[in-house]
Amino acid sequence: MRTTIRWLWKGLLPSLLILAVLGSSARAGRRAEAYYHFLVAVRAYQEGRLTEARKELYRVLRQDPRAVYPRKLLAEIYGRLGKYERAETVVRKALELAPGDPELKLLLARVYLSEKRFARAVVTLEEVLEKDPENERALGLLLNAYLGEKDLSGAVNSLDRLLKVHPDSVSLWLFRARLLARADRPLEAKKSYLRAVKLSDYRLEVVMEAGEFLRRIGALSEAENLYRTYLERNPEDFHARQALLQILLAQKRWSEAEKLLRETLERSPRRKGVRFFLGLVLEKEGRKEKALSVYREVPSDSPFYTDALRRVFALTRELRGDEAALNYLAELIRKESPDPQVYFFAATAAEDMDRCEEGLRFVDEGLKHFSDNRDLLLTKGLLLSCQGRLREALKVVEPLLERFPDDPVILNFVGYTYAELGEHLDEAEKLVRKALKAQPEAGYIVDSLAWVLYKKGRFEEALREIERAVKLAPDDGVILEHKGDILRALGRKGEACAIYRRALELVKHRRDRKRLEEKVSECPGKAPSS
Question: Are 172 and 1 in contact (CB under 8 A)?
C-alpha cells in the first residue's frame, strides 16, 4: 500500500483523449486547433517538458474556455512543480464546470495532502466515497490523509474499508497489523498478523514479522506455534529454526534447545553459528566438558569464532587451571592465525590473568603479521605499562596520535601515561579532556583527568573528578586507589585507608597489589597478609 502522494498521470490520459474528441462544442476549426495544442501538450508532458506543456494547455483553454480535460492535466503539472496553490485554483475552476467529476475531487484531495491540509483532504475524499464507497484510489488517499494527521484510528478505519474491497490482500492485513501495533492495540494487531500469515499460506517473511511481533508482546507460546507450523512445511529453513531457538533460550528450555540445535547440525552441518550456540546450551545444562569440546569445533570462518575462543579459554581456566589456559593461548598463537583479533584476544586474556610477560610475547607475535594494527599496538602499550615500562609504552602508542588524532582511547592512554611519569602535565590534561569530550561517561577517562589534576596539585578539583569516576566504575581497584591518594593529599588519611583496603580486594595485577599493600601497611590497624 503506497503511503506517499506522487504526482503521476497514468489512468487519466485515455479519458482525456476521448473527451478531447467528443467533448468540445466549439466550431470545427477551433476544435481542431485546440486538439492540436492538446496533443502537443501531452507529448511535452510525457517527455518531462512541463513548462512547454503548460503553455500549450493554456492555448487549448483560449480556444475552448469551458474544457475540463486540459485543466486536469494542468493541475497535474502544477502539482509536479510544487505549485499547489495554482493547482488548487485550476481544479476549483474545473469543478465549477463539472461539479460531479470524481477525478477532479481526487485531484483536489491530492493538492490538500501535498499541502498537509489533511482535514480538508478527508472531507473531499468522503464526498467521493459517498457516491462510490469502493473507490480504491479515494480509499488509498484517505488512508494517507489519516496517516498524515497521525490519526491511527482513522487510518485503521480507512484500511478496513479497503479490506471490504480486497478481503484477501496480505499486504493490507500486514499494514493493518502494523498500524494497530503503533496504536498500542496489540490484541487486534495479533489477529491481523495471524490473518496475514494464513492468507499468505505461511510465507516466510510474513511468518517472521508476525512471530517477531508476538515475541515482542510476550506471546511466546503463540510465536512458537507459528514457527513450528512453518517448520513442519519447511523443515530446512534456518531462519525459522533460529527464531524458535531464541524462544527456547529465553525460556531456559535447554534440553529442547539442544535437540533443535543438533537437528539443525544434522541438516546443515556447515551452518555457521550453530555449534557456538550448542556450546552455550551445553554450558547452561552444566555439561562444561562437552561444551568445551563443541566450542573447539567452531570453524575459524564463523562470525562467532572469537566468541568461541573466549569460551574455550574461560572453561579451560575454570576446569583445568591457569597454566592450562595459558597453554591454550600459546597453542592459538602457534597456529599463526590470519585474524589479528586472535592475537589481540590472546594478549588481553593473558593480561587479565596477570601474565603480562606472556601477553607481550603474544602481541609481539601478532605484530609480526599485522605491524600497524591499532588494537595490537595499544595492547602492547598496555602490557608494557603493566610491567612498569612506561617510556617504552609511550614509544609504541604516541605515534598512533598522528593516525588517530581523535581516538579517545589513544588520547587517554598517552595523557594518563604522561601523568604517571609526571611529565608534560599541561599536554596530558589537554589530551584527556579531548578524550572525555568523545566519551564523557567513561569512568577510566574521568579517572585519568582526576589523576592529571592530582599530579598538578589541584587536589580539590581532582577529588570532584575522582568521585565521579568511582560512580561510573565502582569496582575498579586502581580508580579507588587514586581516590585514596587524593584523599590522603587532602589530609583525610582515615578515609584514604578505608578506600585502600577496599581497592586491595579488587585489583588483579601483582604490581598493583604490592603497591596497595605498602599503602595499607602504613595505615593504623592490622596490615594485610601477603
Answer: yes
